[in-house]
UniProtKB/TrEMBL annotation:
This is 1-deoxy-D-xylulose-5-phosphate synthase. It holds the Pfam family AAA_33. It comes from Pseudoalteromonas phenolica. InterPro entries: P-loop_NTPase (IPR027417). It comes from the Bacteria.
């Protein structure tokens, strides 16, 4: 395992700026950027219309994602995962990708207020009409009920990101 490779992960509520910030980190760190939204859209176009659809299809791609990410890391390439690390279970799976091959990870925790998240979601709905059915206040509140901030007991390498740093 090339010790220079690192896995970068993102935790933050819907609309916090995870995708935008992941692009910044990928550029800064010269890392491969993998987007869950892109993988899901490519493999299951027009099949995700509800939150439960997202959960189902997200779980289906995990074996392929795991193999791909671990191959990249093993080659010494850092990887930015634009996949939500918003629950203990999600973080455990993402961190296992690095831990199984003795690779370091960093979790960026984007702490953004609900008001700012909702404002960004409204703007995104206008800018990306294809997402309008999913980017709603109702979906935000549904998804947010599952959000779990990272805990010390998870033993993660966490870097806190201020709300001003996530401006879109």
């Amino acid at each position: 395992m090339n010790s220079k490779a690192q896995l970068f992960l993102f935790c933050g509520k819907m609309g916090a700026g995870k995708s935008t910030y992941s692009q910044v980190i990928a550029k800064q760190r010269q890392a491969v950027l993998l987007s869950e939204d892109a993988w899901l859209a490519a493999h299951y176009p027009h099949q995700i219309t509800k939150f439960n659809d997202y959960i189902h299809y997200s779980n289906l791609i995990k074996p392929f994602v795991k193999q791909h990410v671990q191959q990249l890391l093993s080659l010494g390439l850092s990887v930015v995962m634009d996949f939500p690390a918003n629950t203990v279970k999600q973080r455990a799976w993402l961190v296992s990708l690095a831990n199984e091959i003795q690779c370091e990870h960093t979790l960026f925790y984007l702490q953004v207020s609900d008001e700012v998240c909702l404002s960004r979601i409204a703007k995104r709905r206008l800018a990306q009409p294809k997402r309008a059915h999913f980017d709603t206040p109702e979906v935000f509140h549904q998804v947010t009920q599952y959000f779990e901030p990272p805990k010390a007991s998870e033993q993660l390498a966490v870097e806190d990101v201020a709300e001003s740093s996530t401006a879109i």
